[in-house]
Design goal:
The structure holds 2 protein chains of 2 kinds.
Chain A lengths: L11 H12 L2 E2 H11 L11 H10 L3 E8 L2 E8 L1 H32 L1
Antiparallel strand pairs in A: 1-3, 2-3
Helix pairs in contact in A: 1-4
Chain B lengths: L5 H10 L4 H24 L4 H11 L3 H9 L7 H4 L1 H26 L1 H34 L1
Helix pairs in contact in B: 1-2, 1-4, 2-3
The chains are: A alpha+beta, B mainly alpha.
Chain lengths: 114, 144
């Protein structure tokens, strides 16, 4: 069984979903597979958790849902809206700032150990 | 690991106050997701039973899904989103309903109301008669 992610990963699924939807519209199962692929399986979501994230983003106007019939099956495709793109930019900047801070702190620790 | 039950999940989502439309959509999408995952597992060579179990396990626990829904207030129904407003509406509804309560009760229990009315009338007659008799006795004894 894949290792689950620690609590500080809160907010990361949203960022990844927005990143993937910025490229192309996708449905839930596709998004979960793509998250595994692009993160080299470093981030493994409980697959069901993606839907509350998508619905939350949809309610806040960041993504748009559209039903489509593909190969005889109806799927809900999600795509990014302009509002979602702005949110993605904001979250990316925030993430860069935080990860930069953490990286810097860990660098200091390595310095102290040396 | 316990596999996910969609019925149990729907009940748990309802308990945390998820909007009915959200519950219906999430469970439907999870079922579709499960079908896709099952198909992929079959293609990887798993037996139908293993594929079904694997697909359900990969969805994760219902607790995680419920927690994810609860962390998005916009997915909850209005009573859970704005509990103070819900309390105000409830209080207002009770305030408006209380004056109507006797009328509603009377129209829904006519036989009981008729019985109660007759009993009360009888009690008034008996008490009135006793008081009248006592008054009369006082007056008669005073004149003697």
């Amino acid at each position: 069984m894949a290792q689950t992610n620690p609590p500080f990963m809160s907010g990361v699924p949203e960022l990844l979903v927005l990143r993937l939807l910025a490229r192309q519209e996708m449905y839930g199962y596709e998004i979960v597979r793509a998250v595994r692929l692009v993160t080299g399986e470093a981030i493994t979501l409980g697959e069901g958790v993606i839907y509350p994230v998508l619905h939350g983003l949809e309610r806040s106007g960041a993504v748009r849902a559209k039903r489509k019939a593909v190969n005889g099956r109806t799927r809900v495709y999600y795509s990014l809206t302009t509002k979602g793109r702005l949110r993605f930019d904001r979250l990316t900047n925030e993430w860069d700032r935080i990860s930069g801070g953490i990286h810097s702190a860990l660098g200091d620790r390595e310095h102290a150990n040396a | 690991m316990q596999t996910l039950s969609f019925e149990k999940l729907a009940r748990e989502l309802e308990a945390v106050g998820a909007a009915p439309s959200v519950i219906a959509r999430i469970t439907q999408e999870l079922k579709d997701h499960c079908a896709d995952a099952e198909l992929a597992a079959l293609e990887r060579g798993l037996s139908p039973d293993q594929a079904r179990r694997q697909a359900r396990e990969d969805l994760g626990s219902s607790a995680a899904i419920v927690q994810a829904v609860a962390s998005h207030p916009q997915l909850l129904d209005w009573r859970h989103r704005w509990p103070q407003s819900a309390r105000c509406v409830d209080s207002l509804a009770w305030y408006l309903a209380l004056p109507a309560a006797p009328f509603v009760y009377c129209t829904s229990h006519p036989a009981f109301v008729v019985r109660w009315g007759l009993s009360s009338s009888l009690a008034v007659c008996i008490t009135g008669s006793i008081l009248f008799a006592m008054q009369w006795l006082i007056l008669v004894s005073g004149s003697l």
